[in-house]
Structures are given as C-alpha cells and as structure tokens.
Amino acid sequence: EPEVTQTPSHQVTQMGQEVILRCVPISNHLYFYWYRQILGQKVEFLVSFYNNEISEKSEIFDDQFSVERPDGSNFTLKIRSTKLEDSAMYFCASSGPGAHNEQFFGPGTRLTVL
Amino acid sequence: AQKITQTQPGMFVQEKEAVTLDCTYDTSDPSYGLFWYKQPSSGEMIFLIYQGSYDQQNATEGRYSLNFQKARKSANLVISASQLGDSAMYFCAMKAPVNRDDKIIFGKGTRLHILP
C-alpha cells in the first residue's frame, strides 16, 4: 500500500541553524501539507501546497518557513533559523483522488532544537 | 470559527469492552468532513474513519463506527470489543468546507488506555 515517507525520523539542531525536513508524498497525490505537533499538544496546520504554490498557510508559518517541491517526488519544509520553540514533531500529509479526500500522514520528523 | 472539542483528556477501559470517545465540532459551513486519527506511542498518525456532513448513514470501518449526530454537532468514535493495541491517542478532526486543498483542524485528543 502506498504511503507517505519522511526523512529524517529525528533531527537535532542548534538554535539559529537551518533545517530541511523532507517528505515523499503518495505518488498520484496532488495536495500536500505540513503540520506540527508540539509535545503533548494537538496537531496544528502549517501550510498547504498545490500546483507548485502555497494554497494556505497558518500564522505559525512565518518568514522563517518555506516549502518547496524541487522535483516530481519530494516536498520539503525549510526552517531558516530555528528557535527553541520550533521543537516539535513535523508531519507531512498528502491527499488526492479519493472518496473522502482524507489526508494521509507520514510518520513524522521529530525536530529538537537545542 | 471552526473548532473541534474533545472533552476527555484520558480514558481507562477494560479490554473487550466498547469505548466511546467524544467529539463535538463547530463550523458554519454546510459541507464538511469529520475524521478520526489514531496516534500510537510511536508517533505516526493513522487515519481511522471519515464522515461527510451529507452522509445519510453513520460511517463504519471494522471495529470503528462514528456516531454522527448532526443537530448536536457531535461525531463520537465508537470502538467495539477493545483490544490492548487500541491504547493510543485519538484525535477528532474536521475539514470545512470539504475542498481538496483545505486544511484539517484537530482537537486536543483523548488518550485511551486499554487495561488487560
């Protein structure tokens, strides 16, 4: 069964460093998303992406964040200058042709900012 | 404003018993979709079940069923014959309106513990 994959599973970085989180959505999906979950809290929407541009972004998704689909398979989230409060689990999701348009989530990348 | 409310932060249930996890929602959009996701301790988000606002019947997927009461704006998840592997965090979520590129908003979750 096709699935969304994410790398790395865990990323540790120093405050102020840039990180790139990578995702490979399900191959025939057209809509891509990033969410984050701070430890012990609910999942929060960051950004949605369709047709090579951002469809919607939340107030969390400020100028420090960017997304890109550099080729036909990868979907990346870049944080330019990480802050301590960026420590969270980051989930990529994709959706496409389907009866319910449900979003299929990847396993997540746990980002720890020191 | 759209909102998902899960009032049970944690639940303990004996194995093989049925479980009901509560969820209420708020939206002004007439077309919306309701989801339940399971998050085990390993962290991944597993889609369980979906209910559309115009669906006439309650959704069912194996041991999972969604008790959809539109007038009350509730979408409770029912797990029949609970198993130890059901122990996890459960999130109710909504997409409104149901357009393909719309975000899902999540509730705070209910942590379910199944006791042997």
Rg of chain A, Cα atoms, Å: 13 Å
Please give the count of helices of chain A.
Answer: 0
- Biggest sheet architecture of chain A: 7 strands, mixed
Helix and strand composition category of chain A:
mainly beta
Q: How much strand of chain A?
A: over 45%
| Largest sheet entry of chain B | 6 strands, mixed
Count the E strands of chain B: 12
* Range of helix content of chain A: under 10%
| Classification by helices and strands of chain B | mainly beta
Average pLDDT value of chain A? 91
Largest inter-chain contact set:
A-B, 28 and 25 residues
Q: Could you characterize the architecture of this molecule?
A:
The complex is a heterodimer of chains A (114) and B (116). Chain A is an all-beta fold. In chain A, the strands form two sheets. In chain A, strands 2, 4, 5, 6, 9, 10 and 11 form a seven-stranded mixed β-sheet that branches. Chain A has a four-stranded antiparallel β-sheet with strand order 1-3-8-7, with no helix packed on it. Chain A has strands spanning 5-7, 10-13, 19-24, 31-37, 43-50, 53-57, 65-68, 75-79, 88-95, 104-105, 109-113. Chain B has strands at residues 3-5, 10-14, 19-21, 24-26, 33-39, 46-52, 60-61, 64-69, 74-79, 88-95, 105-106, 110-115. The radius of gyration of chain B is 14 Å and the shape is globular. In chain B, strands 2, 5, 6, 10, 11 and 12 form a six-stranded mixed β-sheet that branches. Chain B has a four-stranded antiparallel β-sheet with strand order 3-9-8-7, with no helix packed on it. In chain B, a hairpin with a 6-residue loop joins strand 5 (33-39) and strand 6. The interface between A and B is medium-sized, with 28 and 25 residues.
